[in-house]
């Protein structure tokens, strides 16, 4: 039951993030399953998604969305694209928004991932975007993974679910996150 509850949380988070995307936006999306789910809820027009998430190829892409794959070396089982080709593509793009997931996020260490090869890619997506939106279900709050890719102060919006504790939420707010949004689990 907890697995499906987390799945519902991810969907609710993705739906909220999709509502922040405006007509004509270019948006970086990383290999996070929550970030990828955002595509299912985008209603804005002329949206371009730039992603290193090969799983996007298994999705039905609506006509209001154009997908650009970064290219790179495919790494299973996540079907992530990494390496110099990936970094070179991202470096050429300035995006109004990035919607990124993470393996863990804490006030102490910031944004972390368990995959070493994705660290630089996530960091570059953050750098190359104007508004940085982090989508993360509450189970990952206060958790640290091995590889750091960003600081708390780089986050404009942190979207999580209502299962987050008040202490967690207030600590993120006071440590420099622009806005913390808690969504209802639908």
The N- to C-terminal Cα distance equals 15 Å
Residue runs with pLDDT of under 50 for 5 or more positions: none
Q: What does the radius of gyration come to?
A: 15 Å
Largest sheet: 7 strands, parallel
Order of helices and strands: HEHEEEEHEEEHEEEHE
Helix percentage: 25-40%
- The tally of beta strands, per DSSP, is 12
The helix-and-strand class reads alpha/beta
Number of helices: 5
User: Strand arrangement, largest sheet?
Assistant: 3-2-1-6-9-11-12
Large-scale geometry: globular
| Strand fraction | 25-35%
Q: What is the overall pLDDT average? A: 97
Notes on the structure:
The chain starts with a helix and ends with a strand. The protein is globular, with a radius of gyration of 15 Å. The relative contact order is 0.17. It contains five helices and twelve strands. The protein is α/β, with parallel strands linked by helices and 186 residues long. Strands 3-2-1-6-9-11-12 form a seven-stranded parallel sheet. A three-stranded antiparallel sheet has the order 7-8-10, with helices on one face. Strands 4-5 form a two-stranded antiparallel sheet. The model has no long low-confidence stretch (mean pLDDT 97). 27% of the residues lie in helices and 29% in strands.
């Amino acid at each position: 039951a907890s697995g499906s509850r987390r799945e519902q949380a991810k969907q609710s988070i993705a739906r909220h993030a999709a509502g922040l995307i405006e007509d004509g936006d270019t948006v970086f999306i990383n290999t996070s399953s929550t970030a990828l789910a955002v595509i299912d809820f985008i209603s804005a027009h002329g949206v371009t998604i730039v992603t290193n998430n090969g799983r996007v190829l298994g999705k039905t892409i609506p006509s209001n969305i154009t997908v650009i794959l970064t290219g790179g070396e495919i790494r299973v089982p996540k079907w992530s694209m990494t390496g110099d080709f990936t970094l070179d593509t991202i470096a050429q793009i300035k995006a109004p928004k990035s919607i990124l997931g993470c393996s863990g996020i804490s006030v102490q260490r910031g944004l972390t991932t368990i995959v070493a090869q994705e660290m630089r890619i996530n960091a570059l997506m953050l750098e190359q975007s104007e508004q940085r939106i982090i989508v993360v279900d509450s189970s990952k709050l206060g958790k640290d993974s091995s590889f750091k890719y960003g600081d708390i102060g780089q986050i404009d919006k942190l979207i999580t679910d209502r299962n987050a504790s008040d202490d967690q939420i207030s600590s993120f707010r006071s440590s420099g996150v622009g806005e913390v949004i808690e969504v209802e689990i639908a």
